[in-house]
Write a structure and sequence with these properties.
The protein has 414 residues and is an alpha+beta fold. The protein has 2 domains: 203 residues, no CATH class; 194 residues, no CATH class. 54% of the residues lie in helices and 21% in strands. A 6-stranded mixed β-barrel has the order 2-3-8-5-7-6. β2 and β3 form a beta hairpin.
Length: 414
Amino acid sequence: MKNISLFIALRYFKSKGQGFVSFQSGMALAGIAIGVAILILVTSVMNGFERELKNRILQAIPHASINGNILKTEIDNLGETLMLNPNILGIAPFIETQGLLSSGTFLKGVYIFGIDPEYEENVSSIDDHFIEGSMESLQEEGYNLVIGDILAIQLGLKVGDSVNILVPQTALGLAGILPRTKKFNVTGIFSLGAPEIDQSYVYLNTENASKLLRTGEYVHGMRIRYSNLFDSKDNIKSDLLRINKEFQVNYKARSWETNYGTLFEAIQMERFLVAFMLMTLVLISSYNLMSMLIMTIKEKESQIAILISLGAKNNLIKNIFLFFGFLIGSAGITIGLLSGLILTSNFGSIVSFIESLFGIQFMKVYFIDYFPIDIRWSWVFSICIISFLLASIASVYPAKIASKIEPAEALKYE
């Protein structure tokens, strides 16, 4: 008897009838398919933004830093104390300031970082993103610097060119008080794919930065990289307390969340809200599925009455429309899954075509200039399961209506 319910449901599903009910059936199936496809696409794009933020920016910058005037002779002692925390993967001294880069008639404001190449590779992945040169070119004996590819284009620079750095610390000259300036050689160009960094970050050797800023025997702090990015805020607090207590100093601390925490939280929140709102598409499609099943029951009322008259149990009638709803939902989810994966996989090419066709750029104000894609199968599986549950729930009420049809009433006018 169980197979009879599935058999009749399959007959209804495969039927090529015409009219309002068939239109409703197609709309319900299409609605579920569209909802699932859009959910897969949008969540994959939002997951891509999260991945790019973590891999490109958050891995290229230190997870946290201890800030204060630290003697260069104390760097090793400070590092040994910090490394007592097993969660720390690396440390690196730094000097930082803001200044201007000038090349010919071009002038650009930049963030200037004095770093030690041997230490820096322990806290940043930027050395993995060089187009030309490397961090190793920042040797103490030469006044060298490395810049991002966008900054190089803006200033018309290439490896081997010279560029002037102007810093806000002033010097007294014959013409009066002037900004301090020094000529450097470009020995490397990197490209993170994050315009915020590629167009405004400049790296020097700590010794050269120290001479430029006249910091003497001090650096501005220590950068720290932890094993878990998201635990860095708690770790840096405990490390700072230990350092201040042991060395009798009053250093300050800062984590990556100071500059990028709001952006990361915004992406997390946007991803949840967008997924939640788009799930209403599937919910509406499930409602359409319920309406379609009720219309089908009204159309097949006499046939259902005959089955009941021949001895069909209520459960058999109920299962027919439960199976029918399952089939519609499964078909819609399958079509949506396949079309969503195909659309998502080719989304970058589609966006590029639209941008070139209309001469626009969708991502010019974001921290990356393209739509990243990250298909996470756990998310895809969750979308399909939730969609199937909604479709199944929508089938329950019509199935109950069908099982309660009175044969005498339904066949009264037949």
